[in-house]
Amino acid sequence: MVRRTSAAFVIAVLAAAGCAAQQQQGGQQGQGTAAGVTDTTIRIGGVLTKTSASGYSTKDAEIGAKARFERANAEGGVHGRKIEFLGAEDDGQDAAKGDAAAKKLVQKDQVFALVPVHAPNFGGAAFLEQQGVPWFGWATGPQWCGTKTGFGYNGCLAPKQGAGSQTWWGRQMADLLGGSDGKSVYVQTSDSSGSKYGGTTISQSFTAAGFELAGVNSGLPAAAPPPDWLPYVNKIMTSDDGGPPDVVVSVIAGTKFNVGLYAALKRAGYQGVLTDATSYDVAILKDPASAQALEGVVAAPMFEPFESTAPEIAKLKADVEKVAPGTQLTQHLAIGYWAADIFLDMLNKTGKDLTREKFLATGNGSYLYENAGFGRIQYPKDHSEPNGCGALVKLEGGAFQVAKSMKCFDNVPLK
């Protein structure tokens, strides 16, 4: 009898210890806490496209997020809890791998939220929405739109017809050129669905700012740059009543495409303004041919440029230098940094009694945050439309210059 009682006691103790260990691993310490949360820490991990067959990589976003989290920890954390950043998984630009990475972080690593998520083909959105797990990053695709858990720092870039669509690019360009009266714009996209969609929203951005639309061409194959740019150049150079447009907007994914198009336009004698969303990249300056082709191009990042004198950018630079001295500042790094910044602000506004439910209630309950580094974000509105903010950067003399600092404009319904 004594032996049976002792055995039962041992089993009970082991069961209790096992339960406690599970709670410790899942972060379930104290009333009102959640998975990934203890009295002193909040566990976070991300998903990035670190590697891909094309060479495209968003790995620098991990440095940006780490830099912002390290400053938060140095300042004492958020309501006494410090960020335990596990780093980011690599989805290899594969949707299935992204889904598996999200499940690993939530089910095995027991994270509270995913920060940063910066992967064009991210496949974990449905799982995170079903599980009620928050995720923050760059909203580059429709999987960010219409969710309650996905918080893109720039809102939703794929609004549905009738929802708000951005006007900032056209209006910033109009301000830069001293007005849009009598000025025309031509939009060149590829035949990919994303590029075509971008052509629609960006065309409307410029027409909303008063530009005349000279044309939109979506016939460029997205697989690789064409062997001959002349057919595309000829269309552009005669698009405005037989003459060239004042502005050419490139909605093409890849520096090689833009270098080829811009070089061909310059050879044809084009004297107008060239603009795109991707040419703000210091790596371009290492290649003389690319730098020459992109000289004078106006890039349109959705964050305040690194060349800015804004205090928020000085903080970003100092934060990055502390965790990764000598790191080259890139667009992907900025995206990771600002995604982490918004997450921390939402965390602070939620309060010490932290659960995912309360956190999401904060984020989806008339949430507003403004910062000169990225503009402004409002939820739940920006689950269905972009935040309407952006800047312009011009490549002049082999160096980037701030053409227009970050500014936010009202959206208009997408036609």
TrEMBL record:
What keywords is this UniProt entry annotated with? Signal
Which InterPro entries does the entry mention? Leu-bd, Peripla_BP_I
The residue ranges of the Leucine-binding protein domain are 41-398
Q: What residue stretch is flagged as signal peptide?
A: 1-20
Q: Which family does it belong to?
A: Belongs to the leucine-binding protein family.
Q: Which PANTHER family match?
A: BLR6548 PROTEIN
What is the protein name for this chain? ABC-type branched-subunit amino acid transport system substrate-binding protein
| The organism of origin for this protein | Nonomuraea rubra
